[in-house]
Amino acid sequence: METGELAREKPPWLKKKVSLNNKNIAAVKDLLKDLNLHTVCQSAKCPNIFECFSKKTATFMLLGDKCTRNCAFCGVLSGKPLPPDKNEPKNIAKAAKELSLQYVVLTSVTRDDLNDGGASHFAETVAQLKKIIPGVLIECLVPDFEGRKDNLKILLDANPDVFNHNIETIKRNYFEIRNTADYRRSLDLLGLSKKIRPDIITKSGFMLGLGENSNEIENLLSDIAESKVDIVTIGQYLSPSSENYPVIKYYSPDEFEEIEKIAKSFGFKYVVSDTFVRSSYQASVAFAAVAAGRI
C-alpha cells in the first residue's frame, strides 16, 4: 500500500457486469430529465449508476451541475453556476415519491458563491421531502460550507437523519488534489455537527489509489475517529477522464478487506470498504445497521 508509479492496467476485479436492458434505467433518466434534476451518479460518472438506476434509486445533486471548485479527482464540471432553482426542492420530493424512495440521499456541488453555501437550499429540500413522504429518511452529503457554524446549523435544524461530509483523501494530498479545500476544516465540520446534534448520525468517506501509504491511511482513520464520525466508507479511486488525476494504485479486494479491519479497530459504528464503494452506495444499509445499534 505504498506510493509508487502510475497504475498502467486495470485489474480483472474492476470489470463490473452491467445490464442496460432494465426498463427502470430509462424510466429514472426520463423522470430526472422531465423534472430538470441532476444526480451525482451522472455528473460524477459513478461506476454504480446502472445498478442503482435499475433499482429505481439515485443520489440527487442540488444546486446545478457546475461546481465553484475544481478538485483534480472529480468528474463534476467546474465553472460559474446558475442561480439556485427555486423549484428544485419540490421537484426532488416529487421524484423521490415517484420512485417510492424511503431513504433519500441529497448532495450538491460546492457553491462558494452563495452566502450560506447552499445550506438553506438543502434545508428546504429536506422539508419538502418530509412533507410529501411520511417517515422518509434523509441523508445529506454536503460540501464544507466554508466551515461556518451558522451554515451548518441551518441544515442541522432541518433534522436530516444522516449528516455526511467526505474527507476524500489523506492530508498530504490536499495541496495538489484538493487545493481549494482544507483538511482540518472538513474534520472540524464533522466534529461540530456531532457536537451540535449528537442525535444525528455522522458519516464520511475517502478514496484509495491517490498515492497514499499505510501510515497515512491509519492517520486519516484516526483523525476521522477523533471527529466522532459514526460511518466510514472506503472505495477505489477511478479517474473520471484523462484530464483528471491519474490512478496511482488499484487496491485488491483482499487489501480492501484488510483496511476495513483496520478501520473497525478505531471504533466506528459501521465501516464498508471495497472497490466500488461510494459514499451514497447502499447508504440505507449503513444507516439501518447504526440505527439498530441504538435500540
Could you please describe the fold and organization of this structure?
The protein has helices at residues 23-34, 40-43, 49-54, 88-98, 119-132, 149-156, 174-177, 183-196, 214-226, 253-264, 283-294; strands spanning 38-39, 59-62, 66-67, 77-78, 103-108, 137-141, 162-164, 201-208, 231-236, 270-273. It has 295 residues and is α/β, with parallel strands linked by helices. The strands form 2 sheets. An 8-stranded mixed sheet has the order 1-2-5-6-7-8-9-10, with helices on both faces. Strands 3-4 form a two-stranded parallel sheet. Helix 6 (149-156) links the parallel strand 6 and strand 7 (162-164).
Termini, distance in Å?
A: 38 Å
User: How do the strands of the widest beta sheet line up side by side?
Assistant: 1-2-5-6-7-8-9-10
Could you give the order of the helices and strands? HEHHEEEHEHEHEHHEHEHEH
Low-pLDDT ranges: none
Average pLDDT, all residues: 91
- In what range is the share of β-strand residues? 5-15%
Q: What general outline do the C-alpha atoms trace? A: globular
Which structural category do the helix and sheet elements fall into?
Answer: alpha/beta
Counted beta strands:
10
Radius of gyration: 18 Å
Count of individual helical segments: 11
Portion of residues within helices: 25-40%
Largest sheet: number of strands, sense, barrel closure: 8 strands, mixed
Question: What is the secondary structure topology, with strand pairs?
Answer:
Blueprint: H1 23-34, E1 38-39, H2 40-43, H3 49-54, E2 59-62, E3 66-67, E4 77-78, H4 88-98, E5 103-108, H5 119-132, E6 137-141, H6 149-156, E7 162-164, H7 174-177, H8 183-196, E8 201-208, H9 214-226, E9 231-236, H10 253-264, E10 270-273, H11 283-294
Parallel strand pairs: 2-5, 3-4, 5-6, 6-7, 7-8, 8-9, 9-10
Antiparallel strand pairs: 1-2
Helix pairs in contact: 4-5, 5-6, 6-8
